[in-house]
What we know:
Number of helices: 28
Strand order of the largest sheet: 1-2
Amino acid sequence: MQFFSLMVSLPDWLFEAAWLPSPGNQGPLTITLLSVFTGLVIWQVLLWWCFRHRQRPFQVQLSIRRPHYIQACLQTCLYLYWGLHWHEVRSYAVLIVFQLLFAYLFEMLLSWSRRKVWHLGFGPFPVVLSINLFMWFKPDFFIFQFLLLALTYLGKEFVTWKRNGKSTHIINPSAFSLSLLSVGLLATDSVDKTFGLDLIWSFYLPANFYEVIFLLGLVVQFLFSTTLVTFGAVLGLYGMVVVSGLIYGSSVVITPFDASVFLGLTLLITDPSTTPRTKFGKFSFGLAYGCVILCTFFVLRYLRQPSYFDKILAVPLMNLLVMPFDSLGVRVQGWISKSWRPVARYVWAVSMCGYAVLIFSILPSLKMPNPDFVDPLPHAAIRVSFPMSELRAKYIALHRQYPELDQPFSFKSEWAHLRNAYKFEPVTAEEYNNLGMAYLDLSQSGQALSYFEQAVDIDPSHGPSQCSLGNQRFQQGDIEAAIVHLRKAIQIDEKDATAHRILGTALSVQGDYIEGVKHLEQALQFNAADDDGHLILGTLLAAHGKLDQAIIHFRHAVEINPNLGGAHYNLGKALVSEGKIDDGVRHLYKAQKLLPGDPEVSKELQNVRLVKSRQRF
């Protein structure tokens, strides 16, 4: 009863602590905290009233389970590393404390309401820390963060089945609540009530976030034999990305999977209570989960919904199929001859080695995505917040300045350059130019232009800044100003292929065909592998009737970059004009595949079909 009295007094302490500083608007957040813990006090009072005449109605049993405190320690390490780069994590820490207290109180009251013994241990830690890796609600809607926790424990208590003669929860508790709230947010078009996109972008701030997830995951896999699940999931997802790219004709994602998905593969799907027990069952379960993630990603993108819900929505479906996967594993084990069964004891070691080799082989593509990637899939109409956009731009600028940060396991470089990266302020022209380029990567041309102008003001002799400013002026339609800056860039560095290409393009738009072609040819002389340069020069030559020369450059462009849809379109159009219809149609169909919905490509194909039909008659 003394313990119960202590728990009753906790909400009073929370009322006072609710006035501590926290991120965002204080008023609604404080009201939420007071309301939630008032509700818990009322629940405790009702329990005491109902059971006041019973002997020992509220029993507590200390239950320190190794999976709980090990996961708590590993996730805390992840939060500490994450918090070094995103200060919001540090500000949010006080709210995580409130959620932990709520989880303990809710679990306690739910157990006692069900007349069960409350098992006191570290169980709430992995639940709360896991949920907050995937979803944060804004202060005005923070009540739903507590709803996530309540649904987690309700699902764990009531959504159960008999497995091997023992009652256990069906769906991973954290994934159960996350998936329910995710469906609700998508159905009501309320995704903007969360920090969803900011959360995803924040995982790109630490230079070695993939490596930290991988190393912490190895500890879990070694201690709790979850390697086969994660290995299968990574292999399945990566294989599906490769296959879909081959079918589609070009990559459909900028990286095989982002850091948030890797978190799901490592920490969300690996709950031993909701995964198969057999070795083959675990591997096939993980393999299927990886495939389902990509399928969910495609569905969300085509529905123009945020795709970062993919790893969450896939979990409940997979948890419901645990028993069939276990049955499959038992059958496979039965097929294996007795002579091979002793080898099975080494499967965990082989799987860990295979998993490590797979991660090491794809890590460069995870950390250094293709800069020429063009996303062919529809987008959701959501935007990242300005503070996160600004912070992300600063980190991109630092990576441009220190490319060694993109190397695998670059912890030494990260510590040297990114200890105070969120405070990074540009000083030199190069730093201003890098920051402007970073904003261009984030499709924020206004901010980019401002930084390019400042770079040129600081150091007019910095060629890349003159080139960047000239290019941005050209994109805005200010041709005269663009030409001035691009000529200065070439005066500073006459071998600047990019400046020659953009200047040649600008001059041709202005009507100076001869000088435009000269600069485009010089650009290719200094950089023969510039696919855009070949495409622009070929287009200019074709416009002036020089189809033979244009075709040569178009062919160079598609050889350098087979996924350049504009080059295939122009090459196909030029070949048709030259009477090489079959060859031209082949490139036009390729362009249609790379540029779905482009009316010019469809119109050209329709004209070709009319020509071919007339030839038949």
